[in-house]
Write a structure and sequence with these properties.
47% helix; zinc; two-stranded antiparallel ribbon; 6 helices; 19% strand; alpha+beta
């Protein structure tokens, strides 16, 4: 074999040995790394398995606890319903017994009985046997004698006894309604003019908003109470309402008759009335009714004349003291029309004695 061939063979053999040794080293390193990785994975898997087991145990424990709480709540609800039913039945029985006692005592002795105390049933829960104790309070009855002469006797259960009273004779005062109609007041009730007969005048209740059908009749000559239609008022008496309308009626009459500022008239009437705290809450403020009173006053003024041939009403020809106020009223061509001179005697004296 030539020399070159042997050298090449030796080189190739050495290269193969080197390559094989390197492969062995690499394979050993890979095996060690894989073993380390497997050990780490095993170490991680063990706690994961342990944590999953703990979670399952915790869930089971929570489910059991919730089921127990639900059972306890259901038992409590059932017990409460039983207690309420038993308490309601006992209350009904006690009320029936009291009504029987009240009926018998009222029919036999003519006594009005008043219920002084109501039944109280209290339940006390005891753990863990859940036994119930009920405490009962006896009903005590207080009876008061009622006179046969008392026409306004109010018995238990008669809720309308306060309103169901006949119309009785009382002091009658006159006034005007908000629309200027006739109106009277009697026993804290207001009545509007209804009709007029030969001997009497009919008045209906002013509370038309409540559909009250009460009607009274007064004598035409003496203005005293005569009789009524038998229909009781459908509302309670209101002293504040009557008082309010009386004061407003006085204000309206003064506004029409006296030509002074309306606000002064309102404040003067409020001052004279000596209103209480409750009446002050009911009465309107001067600024609230001032506009309507000015309209009422303007209606009493004569219309504005369209020519010189108009008649002056007597109320404008005299002063408040019934002295002369219109001192000259002539129509001449020299004047170019009608000449009017208004002056009181005091004003003329001041004029004549002045320089």
């Amino acid at each position: 074999m030539p020399v070159t061939t042997r050298a090449a063979a030796l080189r190739s053999q050495i290269a193969e040995e080197t390559t094989s040794s390197m492969k062995q080293v690499q394979s050993s390193e890979i095996s060690t790394e894989s073993e380390k990785h497997c050990s780490v994975v095993q170490q991680l898997a063990v706690p994961q398995i342990e944590s999953a087991t703990e979670i399952n145990d915790h869930r089971d424990h929570e489910n059991k606890r919730l089921i127990e709480e639900i059972d306890i709540s259901i038992e409590n609800l059932c017990i409460d319903e039983v207690l309420t039913l038993s308490t309601a039945s006992e209350n009904k029985i006690a009320e029936q017994q009291i009504n029987k006692q009240l009926g018998s005592s009222h029919s036999d002795d003519h006594q009005s009985t008043i219920l002084s105390s109501s039944s109280v049933a209290s339940s006390v829960m005891k753990s863990p046997t859940l036994t119930v104790e009920k405490v009962k309070i006896d009903y005590s009855l207080l009876s008061t004698e009622s006179s046969d002469k008392d026409e306004d006797g109010i018995y238990l259960g008669d809720s309308n006894a306060i309103m169901n009273k006949p119309a009785k004779n009382g002091e009658i005062t006159s006034g005007t309604s908000t629309r200027g109609g006739k109106m009277i007041y009697m026993n804290d009730f207001g009545y509007l003019f209804l009709n007029e007969t030969k001997n009497a005048v009919g008045w209906r209740c002013a509370r038309r908003d409540l559909n009250c059908k009460a009607v009274i009749y007064t004598l035409k000559n003496t203005q005293e109470f005569s009789h009524w239609n038998g229909q009781v008022h459908s509302h309670l008496r209101d002293a504040g309402y009557t008082r309010k309308n009386e004061i407003l009626s006085k204000i309206k009459s003064r506004v029409v008759d006296e030509f002074i500022p309306i606000k002064v008239i309102i404040e003067d009437e409020y001052r004279k009335a000596k209103l209480t705290a409750e009446e002050k809450r009911v009465m309107p403020l001067p600024i609230q009714i001032e506009s309507g009173l000015y309209k009422l006053r303007r209606k009493r003024y004569p219309p504005i004349p369209t020519d010189q041939k108009f008649i002056i009403p007597p109320v404008y020809q005299e002063t408040y003291s019934n002295s002369r106020f219109l001192i000259y009223d002539k129509r001449k061509t020299v004047y170019g029309g009608r000449l009017l001179i208004f002056a009181s005697d005091d004003q003329l004296n001041v004029l004549f004695h002045s320089e």
